[in-house]
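Tokens help. Consider this.
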Amino acid sequence: MTALRTRIDATSGDYAGHSAAMLDKLGEITAQHEVAVAGGGERSVTRHRDRGKMTARERIDLLVDPDSPFLELAPLAGFGSQFTVGASVVCGIGVVDGVECMIVANDPTIKGGTSNPWTLRKILRCNDIALQNRLPMISLVESGGADLPTQKEVFVPGGRLFRDLTRLSKAGIPTIAIVFGNSTAGGAYVPGMSDHVVMIEGRSKVFLAGPPLVKMATGEEADEESLGGARMHATVSGQADYYALDEQDAIRLGRGIVGRLNWRKAGPAPRTDVPEPLYDTEELLGIVPPDLKTPFDPREVIARVVDGSDFDEFKPLYGSSLVTGWARVHGYPVGILANARGVLFSEEAQKATQFIQLANRYDTPLLFLHNTTGYMVGKEYEEGGMIKHGSMMINAVSNSTVPHISVLIGASYGAGHYGMCGRAYDPRFLFAWPSAKSAVMGGAQLAGVLSIVTRAAAAARGTAFDEDGDAAMRAMVEHQIDAESLPTVMSGLLYDDGVIDPRDTRTVLGICLSAIANGPIEGTDAFGVFRM
């Protein structure tokens, strides 16, 4: 009796318009994904293959189990910067010999796989995901180290890369390095600090300083092979645990290492009797209107994502601008909070706080579906305690210890972004639809606020107000904010883990929940002081 009933008419003109707009946005995202997949470009890829080497994505394809999904993370990292989209590294979650692993592969077709500031931020994010979710870490290494022109942004924070590897190992999370080429200078510490290391005959080069620097520093003459080649490390230094004949052999050895980990999940076991949603996931394309000021019912999204479209709604008649309830996704239990009409009032904040406490009591992960303009403002609402009620919700989100997943499907503005577990609140995963926008407020609202402030300042000074200048300022600011809040920009800044096709939402959530289940799921009853 808790199965949702759809009210979507997929034959209507409104639906067709919404779907067409979403497909246009998806086309823009796909074009940027193709830039990332192209790596350093056709010439660089051809030169790389002519050396008998596979690309980063080809190595991943061979590493993961056949016909298993690979959830790529942050493929748009670096968008809008001076660096190639993708940040010279391919990262994601894949299944290796039946074990979910975090895979980080340098892309040597882009400046030799050197690490720029966005490469660093992307890998550090993946390290956090691996540690939080107990995912074995596999590094596919071929990198010339730091991008020297930007070393001031890489060197100091880059030490976290090695710290993270040791902390993963300390936590009992295996770390595996397969070295396909250069792993020099600071990069030598990736295999140096990994639990298991595979090197390839005639290919792997691991040293703290290459022959030119050794010559300059000590006067010693040495070639690359004797200084840091795979054979030397396998027979003399002991740095290499496994000696591979070629790239395919190295990946075979890497898969064998994972197969012998005796890895066990500590969270809930997956179920086999998982019913599909009652409604076609293709219809997710036409639910969100292109104008985010137009409301839509998030239950239509939930009905196409959760098992059997079964949703046990909590407090359906109270705080109706926020939909809350219990469901399963690919057999994994979740509590869902979804914005219905954008604005969060006191009732919604209190309802969310109670729901989050219940999820922690039941050790149930939380899924946040964002479409909020923030908490309600105005004299009546301030008098009604909007600040303390919004703070209660943010307190609950901040101190909740069950895993959180956020998906931005519409607007995500102001403190509502925080209350719905935005990036700063450490959700295990955060994704966006192409329709999403995120900022301190909408462009028109922000421009209007600046206009009011400027007008008041002119009146206080007793000077004439420049109406034409104000109109130009408003147009400029609105355009700037709207451009900065686009999902490509936010994803490029690593404020999410990827922009996903709405039709893939159920699959992406299933992979994330399965990854989360590698570790124990434990709630808490310890929250900060709630103002009543």
